[in-house]
Write a structure and sequence with these properties.
By secondary structure, the protein is α/β, with parallel strands linked by helices. 32% of the residues lie in helices and 23% in strands. The longest helix is centred in the middle third of the chain and has 13 residues, at 73-85.
Length: 215
């Protein structure tokens, strides 16, 4: 591991807006009250990377609590540091493997879930690791309140098609969908938030897929 990554790992451990691994279990069912000190809705961004979506959503919606979830502390470092520097109180980060998410959040605790540009895991042998695989969707269903919505943005057409297939197979309710977000009438201030990776994809003229659904 490079010196810069080591520095970020060490620094992120000191951030008050970051919870790591086993420590997250103490907030299960009480993230709003115990971590944020309020009763506002909780929204997750899974595989949040550098946390651009988490931080920008928090700026747009100050009366909602946002938590970015990722396992790579050196990536979380960027979003967490920005939130601290700008005094954004309604944002936090949780460093865990997403497979363990039910150990950290309780049933009906989450209002919405965003998945923005995750690893598409294109190999067939890694299908179970795709974040819209049915085993993950069951976890999200457990966490979400009635009517809670899921959002996916991805540049990967294969992963998007796979997700649409799972939505149909499980008879879930699609609310919005497009295979070319920035040339659709769906784009708005929220969907225009761009991650580091999205900017790279757009620079390469790649289309951005988006789908919103609920259980």
């Amino acid at each position: 591991m490079g010196k810069d990554k080591l520095r970020k790992f060490a620094e992120v451990a000191t951030f008050e807006n970051v919870v790591q691994l086993e420590a997250g279990k103490a907030y299960r069912g009480e993230w709003a009250s115990k971590f944020f000190g309020n009763n506002n809705p909780v929204v997750l961004e899974l595989a949040c990377g550098k946390g651009e979506y988490t931080v920008n959503l928090a700026k747009m919606f100050p009366h909602i609590n946002f938590i970015g979830v990722d396992y790579k502390g050196n990536r979380i470092w960027r979003g967490a540091k920005t939130a601290l520097a700008e005094g954004i109180q309604n944002v936090g980060f949780l460093r865990i493997q997403i497979e363990t998410i039910l150990e950290h959040f309780a049933e009906n605790e989450v209002a919405e879930i965003w998945i923005t540009f995750p690893d598409p895991q294109p190999q067939e042998s890694r299908e179970k690791k795709r974040l819209t695989n049915p085993r993950f969707l069951e976890k999200y269903k457990f966490l979400l309140k009635d009517g809670g919505r899921m959002h996916l943005k991805t540049d990967n057409d294969g992963f998007y098609a796979y997700t649409i297939e799972q939505i149909a197979a499980l008879n879930l309710t699609k609310i919005k969908e497009t295979t070319d977000l920035y040339h659709s009438d769906l784009v708005d201030d929220v969907l225009s938030i761009k991650t580091y990776y999205e900017r790279k994809y757009l620079a390469d003229n790649k289309n951005i897929n988006y789908v919103q659904w609920r259980f």
